[in-house]
What we know:
mainly alpha
Amino acid sequence: MSVFNRNRYIALALMMITSLIGWYTILLLTNDFDSDNLPVPNDDQVIGLVIGLFSTLVWWFQRCYQVKVRS
């Protein structure tokens, strides 16, 4: 049986979506308020997103090889 299966791919997709939503939430909380426009991320914030998504992917790989699949 493979370490990667449908449930783990669904978990990866949900983790990536959650990371993206969490990143944008922090962006909304920390940027200046303008009632007309939503904040646009700067270069440092986009780099933070890339690092966050990469670390999520690494964490997912680690958990896939750590947790045993039921047979």
